[in-house]
Write a structure and sequence with these properties.
The chain is mostly beta strands. It has one domain: Neuraminidase (6 Propeller). The protein contains 1 helix and 24 strands. The strands form 6 sheets. The protein has a 4-stranded antiparallel sheet with strand order 1-24-23-22, with no helix packed on it. A 4-stranded antiparallel sheet has the order 2-3-4-5, with no helix packed on it. A hairpin with a 5-residue loop joins strand 14 and strand 15. The protein is globular.
Length: about 375
């Protein structure tokens, strides 16, 4: 019989060292997935701590509820989002819901609207010339659910609801100049309204899907209803772009790039030349808000624990994550409304909870934020 030598067991110090190495590697991976790899102190950046409290579900009606925005208008708070009994994809049964509250605690529905044979999506507020606008980009769906193979960006059309007091609403109002554009975030500067509008280059009819030849246009309006092109945020791989005007008219923007890493965009009037720099992460449903003397960026981030809604400080061209909200599954599209330089409230949607039957629900959530050491 052939004698097979027995393998000597690993020496304990070696095993301990190997275990410690694996633990370090796992910890580094976890830190990166949670956005903690960017250490502001190592770069000499001092950032405040933020306390998140009173996380609550504020709306669920048995339907798919998503894509939020918040605003304060004439002494009341307003929250808007899409609701659809058939789910996330393109359905003509979708509608836009607008809620109102005087104290951020008790909400009442003040308006709901839909567009026949269209899916109303991604509502956004704009306080413009004393009127409160809610803008929505709409997919053409026809009489029933639209298969993804038939999605056509060229059939997009923007609509609005508007009100002078937050009680009586006019809707749906078609937005002239937005056919073929998937309209998104809105902003105001010096008496003009601006929108992001995603469109195919030269409204190309081939192919039906969204390839790299998609632009993000800056649309401008004098009345909030009739629009024309002012500039291009992105000339290729254009997507959801949130933008803010600064006092001198310069623009700071965060642009989604499909499933790729997002970009930070900068430009000065007349917005014909742009500085574009890739950020360190993908951001779905990006948010950009000035809170006190700092910029906050929010949106969906992919992690090894699945997609999460997170918030980051933007310092220069760097993102420093400071909070991950309770979230999972289909989630993101946050809105943050500053109440003071140290207090804020935010909304987002998520699918991390289940109903009494154990079925996942997609609902609207809110939370209170406080800067601890400004």
């Amino acid at each position: 019989m052939t004698h097979v030598p027995r393998k000597q067991p690993l020496k304990r110090p070696f095993k301990r060292g190997l275990v410690n190495l694996l633990l370090v590697i796992a910890l580094i991976g976890l830190m990166k997935s949670r956005g903690e790899a960017q250490d502001p102190e190592s770069k000499g950046v001092k950032l405040p701590e933020v306390r998140v409290t009173n996380v609550r579900r504020v709306f669920y009606n048995g339907e798919h509820n998503a894509f939020t925005d918040l605003i304060h208008f004439q002494g009341r708070y307003f929250l808007t989002f899409r609701s659809c009994p058939d789910g996330h994809m393109v359905h003509p049964t979708a509608s836009i819901i607008i809620l109102s509250s005087k104290d951020l605690k008790k909400w009442e529905q003040v308006h709901q609207f839909s567009v026949p044979m269209r899916d109303t999506r991604d509502p956004h507020f704009l306080d413009f010339k004393g009127q409160l606008f809610v803008y929505t980009g709409t997919w053409y769906s026809g009489e029933t659910t639209l298969p993804p193979s038939e999605y056509d960006l060229n059939k997009h059309l923007g609509y609005a609801a508007w009100s002078g007091d937050g009680k009586q609403w006019h809707s749906p109002v078609m937005l002239e100049g937005t056919f073929g554009h998937y309209i998104w975030k809105a902003a105001e500067y010096e008496g003009k309204a601006y929108l992001c509008g995603r469109r195919k280059h030269q409204f190309d009819v081939r192919p039906r899907g969204e390839g790299p030849e998609v632009e993000s246009a800056m649309l401008v309006s004098d009345d909030g209803l009739v629009w024309k092109t002012a500039a291009l945020f992105q000339e290729q791989r254009g997507d959801e772009t949130v933008f803010q005007f600064q006092a001198d008219g310069s623009v700071l923007a965060i642009g989604r790039r499909g499933s790729d890493k997002a970009q930070i965009l900068r430009s000065k009037p007349p917005y014909q030349e742009w500085q574009r720099k890739e950020l360190d992460r993908y951001i779905g449903g990006p948010m950009l808000v000035r809170w006190g003397n700092r910029w906050v960026v929010g949106g969906r981030r992919n992690t090894d624990r699945g997609p999460k809604t997170s918030l980051c400080w933007l310092v220069g061209d760097e993102l420093y994550e400071f909070e991950e909200l309770p979230s999972g599954g289909d989630n993101s599209y946050p809105a943050l409304l500053p109440l003071s330089s140290t207090q804020a409230v935010m909304s987002w949607y998520s699918t991390h909870e289940k109903d009494a039957k154990g079925k996942s629900i997609t609902a609207i959530y809110m939370a209170d934020l406080e800067v601890i050491n400004p």
